[in-house]
Every structure is written in structure tokens, then in C-alpha cells.
Amino acid sequence: xxxxxxxxxxxxxxxxxxxxxxxxxxxxxxxxxxxxxxxxxxxxxxxxxxxxxxxxxxxxxxxxxxxxxxxxxxxxxxxxxxxxxxxxxxxxxxxxxxxxxxxxxxxxxxxxxxxxxxxxxxxxx
Length: 125
Fold this sequence. Notes:
Layout: H1 12-21, H2 25-35, E1 46-51, E2 54-60, E3 65-70, H3 72-75, H4 78-90, E4 94-99, H5 100-105, H6 107-124
Parallel strand pairs: 3-4
Antiparallel strand pairs: 1-2, 2-3
């Protein structure tokens, strides 16, 4: 069921649907601004990546870094989000979260924060 980075091929079609049909404004904005085409520090980011039993918003395989953009739905299910985050951390992933509001209203701050996270992960290798 799993291969590299706990990739779950059983969720592949669902992830493809999410990439094409239900992408939030914030996800589109951060993707176009600096995550697509190796724009961010030359790192490759994947969108809507199936990992374990979850689909994460963005994933950088080189750093095992997951970026989650939290919209309104996340505020309605904090227990599930907590479980999901702890499960992914237990598999060795680093997770950083931003709210939709942060991405839409202060993209520069998100970029600075992510630059810091990436720098820390690269110097810890």
C-alpha cells in the first residue's frame, strides 16, 4: 500500500480531484506565488499529496515538510486535526500550518516564516 514517503496510491484519484476542483484561493495564491516550479529555494513541492491515510496540502519530499493551509473547516474539527498532525509527525514529517487569512492578507509574512522553517530543516540535515 505504501512506498516512498508513505505515499498512499489508493488516494491518488481523490487527490487529483482535490487539485483540480476544490482548491481554495489561499492554496492557489501560495502555489503560484512561490511553491510551484521550484521557485522556493529550488525545492520541489507537490500539491494535494496522499500520505498515509491523509491528503496534505503541500509536500516537499526533500525536507519531509508538509504545509497545511487551514480554512474554516479546520476550526470545526480540532480533534481530528490534532490526531492527523501527531500521526504525520510520528512518521517523521515536519508540519507547518498557516491560516487562509494569513496567506491571503500577509503573503510576505508567510514567505518569511517558511524561509525560516526551510533554513532550519536544511541546517539540521
